[in-house]
Amino acid sequence: MTQALPGEEPGSTPEPAGGQWAVADLRITTKALPEHNRVRNRAMLLQTLFHEGPRSRADIARGSGLNKVTVSTIVGELIAQGILVEAGQSADVRVGKPATLVAIDDDSRSVISLDLSDALSFRGAVMNLRGQVSHQRDVAMITERGDAAVARVVELAGELLSEAPAAVLGIGVGSPGMVDRAGVVRFAPHLGWFDTDLRGALAERFGVPVHVVNDANGMALAVHTFRDNDGRSILVVTIQRGAGAGLIVGETLVDGVDFAAGEIGHVVVDPRRETSCLCGRSGCLDSIVAVPQMRRRLGAGEDRDVVIADAAEALGAALAPIISVLGATHVVLVGPEDILDEGFAAGTRAHLTERTLPTTTSTISVDIGSDGGLLALQGPLVAVLSAELGIS
Ligand SMILES: [Zn+2]
Fold first, then answer.
1. Domains observed in the chain
2. How far away, in angstroms, is 254 Cα from ligand 1 center?
3. pTM for the model
4. What's the CA-to-centroid distance between 57 and ligand 1, angstroms?
5. 185: pLDDT confidence band, cut at 50, 70 and 90?
6. pLDDT in the model for residue 227
7. I need a surface site. Which of 167, 197, 256, 271 has the fewest CB within 10 A?
């Protein structure tokens, strides 16, 4: 946690947090220093209620190490804002009268989530704080590029905002390519975006907080928050028009010095292979595992087992050194169901086993991320939850 917390003076009343957290800084697990206190304590309290369900004020104080007065003050503010509600009495009565439970009202805020990962169609949804979709809109066949593509994003966000049933906490966007922490898409060639201020365009138009993340990083956030995981490193690998990866180590999203962490598509996995790639080289991961490339081979009548085994070997070769560096890792593969099946996952697992020490392999798991479409929408949601409420 190195991020400064602007605008937090002792005694000031925190508004709905307003982007104090960098998306990269995930769960708040320690008690705050005095200079950080209220926003950070509020985040810790919300985080507890989000993951552990309704609690009494006394239980929150016990679990967090915050004193009871602080807990009551924060709970009071959040109830006034409608984010928390009182939720009945505790059944666990030891001494005295039963305690009143407080809970997050999942429907108290709406979040607009946009998934641009496909680059050919944009998807958007209105979600509640729990990641449940109430409205969804898809825009098929995006042909625009550059500023015109930004205009389509703004249009889609506007339509979803008009359908939001509750006050809007923010807009989250999962974009392909390299995205910096200011929400500028540095490089997304499929959409013709180079240093494109996507966050600025949306924030200026709608006046609500906007958070833009790389699509694969977003999916790693979604797995971290909404799927079972045991706290090991999470490596989400997306196989779409190219291969991408989102990585969480400990409680930190790794986005890299130039926001290019996870751009594994152009790792050369076999320099002797004569596969040509957009980047001008041969034997890149993308040139072997990209979905259009695999579908082309299948369409030309090649044996499915051979095509899948080929891709799984290339992916295993690219991932083995990463996993060896990280140690215990949970790998989640996300992509279209006609390509990413159990055979693909088993093949990847087998090649990882072949290329790493048994001690490494025994601590990794390789799973297919079921419902990648929902993960792709929940990722941008977590970017908003994390930045605005400290929940992830
Ligand atoms: Zn390449």
1. 1-105 (1.10.10.10), 110-214+377-389 (3.30.420.40), 221-374 (3.30.420.40)
2. 22
3. 0.85
4. 54
5. very high
6. 86
7. 271
Output the CA 24–ligand 1 centroid distance in Å: 27
Question: What pLDDT digit, counting tens, does each position of 227-237 carry?
Answer: 877 767 899 99
Considering the chain, what is the average pLDDT of its residues?
86
Distance 270 CA to ligand 1 centre (A): 11
Q: How far is the CA of 280 from the centre of ligand 1 (A)?
A: 6
* Cα 268 to ligand 1 centre (Å): 7
Q: How far is the CA of 54 from the centre of ligand 1 (A)?
A: 49
CA atoms within 13 A on the CB side of 306: 6
Q: What is the mean pLDDT of residues 15-42?
A: 63
Task: Yes or no: say if 140 and 156 are a contact pair by the CB < 8 Å rule.
Answer: no
Residue 262's pLDDT band (cuts 50, 70, 90): confident
State the distance from the centre of ligand 1 to the C-alpha of 278, rounded, in angstroms: 6
- CA-CA distance, 294 to 303, in Å (whole number)? 11
